Amino acid sequence: MTGVRDSALVVLWSDLQVGKVDKLGGTDALVARCDLMRDRLRELVRKHKPQQVVFADLGDTVENFSNKANQQQLRTNDLSIMQQVDVAITEAWLTLKMLGDVVPDVVYASVGSNHCQWRVSGQAVGLPGVDDWGIHILHQIRRLAVEKGFGWRFVLPDPDDESVCLDVVGHRLALVHGHQANRPDNVVSWWRGQQFGNQPVAHADLLATGHFHHLRVQECGAKPNGGSRFWVQASTLDNGSGWFRRVAGESAVPGLTCFVLDRGVDFAGTVFKL
After folding, report:
1. What is the spatial order of strands in the sheet that 228-233 belongs to?
2. Nearest to 167 by CA among 273, 42, 10, 5
3. Which residues touch 94 (CB under 8 Å, ≥6 apart)?
4. What is the pLDDT of residues 209-253, one digit of tens each?
């Protein structure tokens, strides 16, 4: 169609931690928040009319039971791991169906994360690109989408990797959960170091992470064509992190981070927090 830009909306679906109970509530509060995010996301799609949407699951989709505060998780979680996965699949499916109804091209990408890892006695086991609840959730949704004939595309890490890089209307977008960098101030150095190992994110123009639960956009140097690389740290969708608030004295407001990419136009750092 003449005059229509080739554009994509990237949706950073991050850190729901389904099953977690904290200051903002439990599962009921999270489901209500997801409903609100879908309403806001629908309006954003109507406004920008992208030809493609990339649903990027950045990890920690479920709270799980074998993380750092594993005894506390037994006390505070309001869902079993089976129920957590069921709710996580439902919320992702509802969001993807809504997007698929109004956008012709849907891409669903997922990466492994610390809360979704298969763990035994607190230790990660198995393959990071396989043995992960977020990856498992993608597989279940892919089965549903294939049965419905939706034609959505799915992107996963290689079995031994925790990151992916995909082409989005000419932009090289990398996804990783972020726990690999330990602290947010280390993310850019971690990304830079990936080039020496020729890792999936090595040649990306744009890196999106979760894990750190707050919105952050940082310019990270020049690309070969003269534009800038950017790191986008996604907002959290969870019910809060009381332990971090007590230690650091601050907390992040939950929300859904999105941005638009246009073919042939350098990304300049504009994001939307819904």
Report:
1. 163-168, 171-176, 206-209, 228-233, 216-222
2. 10
3. 34, 38
4. 999 999 999 999 888 877 899 999 999 999 987 555 566 556 789
